[in-house]
Amino acid sequence: MTTAHGTPVTRRERRTRKTAKRPPKVTFLGVLGELLFTAGLLVMLYLVWQLWWNDIVVRAEQDSGAAALSESWTGGLDNLPTTTDETDFGAPAVSPEPVDGETFAILKVPRFGDDYGAKIAGGVSKARTLDKIGIGHYPDTQVLGENGNFALAGHRNTYGKPLNQIAELQVGDSIVVQTKQGWYTYKFRTLEYVTPKAVDVLNPVPQTEVTEMTDSFITLTSCNPKLSTAERIVAYGVFDSWRPTEAGPPAELAAQK
Q: Which parts of this chain are annotated as the region Disordered (predicted)?
């Protein structure tokens, strides 16, 4: 056998040419491997979107939404007094019991950043409150202005992760809750890690069976560790002061203007 130019073709060259013409062999394991690789890549991209980019977008939306709601209640902070005196404004206004999924307040924590804000709604269901709005108020715990425990829950990851920085709180940090009536300021005291079954953190006086309520507390709960529901991280604060809307924001927030 010769080539078109009359050059003899060796046996080895004939075998090589025959082998080169054969299409690649498709195997079940090969197809499965490619499918698993593609699926893994899609899962990784989804996680990047869900745990990083989507959280950035949702967090920004929650911050801006809380700021807009705050301004609607105050008519614009520029129109309010900027005094930070320690005037006693008397007993704080008692907020009504919120309806499930109803936004009634805003959480502001200077430690979490100047732009941080998260709406608070009634109930702690994922579908109606935690995933959709941000922070939820535990039913059957006390409302703002009452003695007892004003207890809240929020995500530490995903859906804007409003309590992502809860472990960074330091003793004395301000935790401010704003409503249409004014601002309630609490001072952070301590963190605690408990099991999901430790519902006594929601008692009127957390972790006790005391029924006589003479003080006001705020309790923030979220999951621990991050990306897990094995435990709960709990932050406690005690009531410090109250300022009606017409008196302007507390010093901690006035400094952020």
A: 1-21
Query: Environment class of residue 27 by beta-carbon count within 10 Å: exposed (0-12), middle (13-18) or buried (19+)?
Result: exposed
Domain boundaries, the chain: 57-253
- Selecting among 107, 133, 153, 223, the annotated active-site residue is 223
Identify the active-site residue in 108, 119, 137, 155.
155
Please state the φ and ψ torsions of residue 44, each to the nearest 5 degrees.
-65, -45
User: CB burial class (10 A; 0-12, 13-18, 19+) of residue 22?
Assistant: exposed
Taking only the tens of pLDDT, the chain with its 257 residues reads 544 455 554 555 555 555 555 666 767 666 666 766 666 666 665 555 555 556 778 888 988 999 999 999 998 655 666 555 667 899 999 999 999 999 999 999 999 999 999 999 999 999 999 999 999 999 999 999 999 999 999 999 889 999 999 999 999 999 999 999 999 999 999 999 999 999 999 999 999 998 888 999 999 999 999 888 899 999 999 999 999 999 999 998 877 75
Fold designation for 57-253 = Sortase; Chain: A; (2.40.260)
Does the annotation count 5 as an active-site position? no
Annotated active-site residue 223? The verdict is: yes
